Amino acid sequence: MTILFGFYVLIWPALTLGVLVLICRAVLLDRRQARKENRELV
Q1: Rounded CA gap, 19 and 37, in Å?
Q2: Domains of the chain: total
Q3: Closest CA to 21 of 29, 31, 10
Q4: How far, in Å, CA of 25 to CA of 23, rounded?
Q5: Helix-then-strand count for the chain, H and E
Q6: What pLDDT shows up at residue 42?
Q7: Model-level pTM?
């Protein structure tokens, strides 16, 4: 049970990091495309 609880606690930082990387990548790609088309991001 301790190993299962440890895994449960340690998986959340990994999932959070994955989502953060996904969001940052999407924003950077959108920013690059907006700059390429000479328009604002928002």
Answers
A1: 27
A2: 1
A3: 29
A4: 5
A5: 1, 0
A6: 84
A7: 0.73
